Amino acid sequence: MGVFTYSDEYTSPVPPARLFKALILDSNNLIPKLMPQIVKSIEFVQGDGGVGSIKQINFQEGMSPIEVQFLPGQDGGSINKMKSTYNTKGDIVLGEEQVKAGKEKALGMYKVVEGYLLQNPDAYA
After folding, report:
1. Residue 85 lies in a domain
2. Taking the mean position of all CA atoms in its chain, how far away is CA 32?
3. Alpha-carbon gap, residue 98 to 66, rounded angstroms
4. Which of 13, 19, 92, 111 could link 77 by a cystine bridge, Cβ 3.0 to 4.6 Å?
5. Digit-coded pLDDT (tens) for 81-91
6. Could you tell me where the beta strands, DSSP code E, fall in the chain?
């Protein structure tokens, strides 16, 4: 089994605190509503949403785990880092097209939430 990790960085006009609230703290409510085709459900594995809580995101088929980091950017926006980890079976090597498709899915999820926040400036403020 091989493990492949790919990282990307994106900028957003949305402040990091709003993105964090929407994409992390309230993800179990917001994301399945906005993207039922990507996310089946999000549930707490441990805790109730406070510090130390662990959430499990149950993706539809074909999605890989994503780690995110939200940093302050210019003009009140943010710099957002994403890291995807792919675990392959046997000697399978991921092709460039497969990696690109995974990155596009992760960015697509992020962009849907970003669009929602831009259209709803009071949400998660």
Report:
1. yes
2. 12
3. 15
4. 13
5. 888 777 777 77
6. 3-12, 39-46, 54-59, 66-72, 78-87
